[in-house]
Design brief:
heterodimer; A: 273 residues; mainly alpha; B: 322 residues; MetI-like fold; 2 domains; two-stranded antiparallel ribbon; 2 strands; 72% helix; globular; disordered N terminus; MetI-like (chain B); transport (chain B); MetI-like_sf (chain B)
Chain lengths: 273, 322
């Protein structure tokens, strides 16, 4: 095949630069003072004002940024652990165990995957009011402890990754079904569970509409408190950028650690689809 | 396998050695209970939590939408009045047009660029992992954070886009002021975020296209562009349908980007003249600012109907093109 590597590499590198630039710009502005924002040509190197900006950010009263960070961290970890556990448990049952009504239940899960969750957001809010969870962290955790997408993904994964012989051998040895799940199935599902965990963490951390509906400004999540910064301090771009940088760091960290698995997971899922 | 069952070994060690037969009978009984009921136990947590917080609200939205329902207490049944009002509501239609406009501006370039990127990544060059990870960088960022960055980049006075336009002699654009300019700015954020993800899905699909198809085409003297349109695109049709439907659903729910873009007191209405208010924003405004739950629910159902309609249209077009 004829190739023109220069053109191909050129295009791909341009794509990478465009992908990375907004993040780099985020860093540059977060390390500078507000008066350089809007300079032309724009400053392209980081400054040394990050420490000051961070101090100002956490002192900004209306944003409650620290509370937002802590809330999002708790919610993301709890939701991720729970989704991975319940999804792999149910996925294993759907893939490998026989029970009456299995197919019907699976169809329900598949059907609801197509429907956006926010369609039910108004009744969900009413439920939260009934439960007294308005402005409580439970409100952004409990409804998301399970995921239809997660069950589907884990079922697909279990069908391929868990050999029936292994399950039968464990059964003959007298393992209870839960023990089979815990000692045989879960280890085999680990790569799929890692991808599901990463996506769940990112989705929970990024959740915006629902926290905005159910929480108040004094008890926000991190994205909520970012939006407070942009309404309250709308001219202070360095402050907003510093908040945005800190809100992005955990995700970037996860990505640096697991980037290859994420790529692999997306591509594997795509082939199946 | 016995080493995996310390619990069982300990428990049985105490009292069962003297009377093995009853234990075995009990054991097999428990075993049968276990195999029969464990599957239900395993799927139950999902259905309980999902039923309460996922499925029930979804269905209940339809019921609420038939009521005049404001904060506190239950609503008054008014049948389809909310929907009748909705069809006469210029703000609703404005939000619908904004949503569809941004959907097109965000989805079409996004998927076309993703196709090109994927076919470039599929050329079997070195350093692929680095490139793949690179194009995925945008989806791991915080949406609100990136909304803030792009808001600044598109700022009328301080923004980089206007700075660059100035270089080629174009006057500064007030990106928030008009429909078309705000749609473009918001669509850029969506494009930026999702292009790499779609490119990876296409790449995965392209890698399963048999090589000999291309070899045969080369023998026939087909150009690279012809190969792309006549082999690659038809062979990855399922992946394309998948991304079109996913992008449509996501586009119909667009919320965070326009909300952050419209800083200040007009944020939820999408600018002072609602020039970039989406349907999700309108639903939010009605339900959580005006506390008109019934009307908000009617908007939610219209979003749902539109999503289903668009998914169906996508599907039909894709099938017809076959």
């Amino acid at each position: 095949m004829r190739k023109s590597p220069v053109l191909i590499y050129g295009t791909l590198i341009a794509a990478i630069v465009l992908s990375a630039f907004p993040l780099y710009w985020l860093f540059v502005v977060a390390t500078r003072t507000n008066d350089v924002v809007g300079d032309w040509p724009p400053p392209l190197l980081p400054g040394d004002n990050l420490g000051d900006n961070i101090t100002r950010l956490f002192a900004a009263e209306q944003a409650n940024f620290l509370t937002g960070l802590i809330n999002s961290a708790i919610a993301s970890v709890v939701v991720t652990v729970s989704v991975v556990f319940f999804s792999s448990l149910a996925g294993f049952a759907f893939a490998k165990l026989k029970f009456r009504g299995r197919n019907a239940l699976l169809v329900i899960i598949l059907a609801t995957m197509m429907i956006p969750v926010q369609m039910g957001i108004i009744p969900l809010y009413m439920i939260m009011v009934e439960l007294g969870w308005q402005n409580e962290l439970e409100a952004v955790i409990v409804p998301f402890l399970v995921s239809a997408f997660g069950v589907f993904l884990m079922r697909q994964y279990a069908e391929r990754a868990v050999p029936d012989e292994l399950l039968e051998a464990a059964r003959v040895d007298g393992c209870s079904t839960f023990r089979i799940y815990w000692t045989v199935v879960l280890p085999a599902l680990r790569p799929g569970a890692a991808v599901l965990g990463l996506f769940t963490f990112m989705a929970t951390w990024n959740e915006f509409l629902w926290p905005l509906a159910v929480l108040e400004a004094d008890n926000p999540t991190v994205q909520f408190s970012l939006s407070q910064l942009s309404t309250t301090y709308y001219t202070d771009y360095t402050l907003m950028f510093t908040g945005a940088l800190i809100a992005t760091l955990p995700l970037l960290l996860v990505f640096i650690l697991f980037g290859k698995q994420i790529v692999g997971g997306i591509m594997e899922g795509a082939v199946k689809a | 396998m016995t080493d995996l069952r310390p619990g069982t070994a300990e428990r049985t060690g105490k009292n069962s050695r003297a009377t093995p037969p009853p234990r075995r009978r009990l054991g097999s009984f428990l075993g049968r209970v276990d195999t029969k009921w464990s599957p239900y136990l395993f799927v139950a947590p999902f259905f309980v939590i999902f039923g309460i917080f996922g499925l029930f609200p979804l269905v209940y939205t339809a019921w609420v939408s038939l009521h005049q329902w404001s904060m506190g207490g239950s609503g008054t049944f008014i049948g389809f009045e909310n929907y009748v009002e909705l069809f006469d509501d210029p703000d609703f239609w404005n939000a619908t047009i904004n949503t569809l406009g941004m959907l097109v501006l965000a989805t079409v370039p996004q998927l076309l660029i993703a196709l090109v990127l994927a076919s470039l990544l599929n050329q079997g060059l070195r350093k692929l992992t680095f490139l793949r990870v690179g194009v995925l960088l945008p989806i791991v960022t915080s949406v609100a954070a990136i909304g803030i960055v792009f808001s600044q980049i598109y700022d009328r006075d301080a923004g980089m886009v206007n700075g660059m336009l100035g270089l080629i002699g174009v006057d500064a654009v007030d990106w928030r002021a008009d429909k078309w300019s705000s749609w473009i700015a918001i669509s850029t954020m969506v494009n930026w975020r999702w292009t790499g993800y779609n490119a990876l899905i296409y790449l995965a699909a392209m890698q399963s296209v048999p090589r000999d198809l291309y070899e045969a085409a080369i023998v026939d003297g087909a150009s690279r562009i012809r190969q792309f349109w006549n082999i690659t695109v038809p062979m990855i049709r399922p992946a394309i349908i998948f991304t079109v439907i996913i992008s449509t659903i996501a586009g119909m729910q667009l919320f965070t980007e326009p909300l952050i873009f419209g800083q200040g007191s007009y944020a939820i209405s999408g600018g002072s003249l609602r020039q970039f208010q989406t349907l999700s924003m309108y639903m939010f405004e009605k339900a959580f600012r005006d506390f008109d739950y019934g009307y908000g629910s009617a908007v939610a159902w219209m979003i749902f109907v539109l999503i289903m309609l668009l998914a169906l249209i996508n599907f039909l077009i894709m099938r017809k093109g076959k």
